[in-house]
Amino acid sequence: MKKNTMKKLMVNEIQKGIHNYAPVEEIKRIDKQIADLQQQIDFLMRSKNLRALPNAAHKRRCGF
Hints:
Helices cover 91% and strands 0% of the residues. The protein is mainly α. It has a domain at 23-64.
């Protein structure tokens, strides 16, 4: 079986399974929440890294 055909079949089966558990609107809402949370995590990680840089530079200068 071709790779593309297999992918299409897998996508169809997954979609069938998802529809058994939740309506499309609910899935889209959850996907949006996940994306928003990921953006918040990315922002916090960048903020943490920016705050950590001066401390790390200080430790290097002091020989820690």
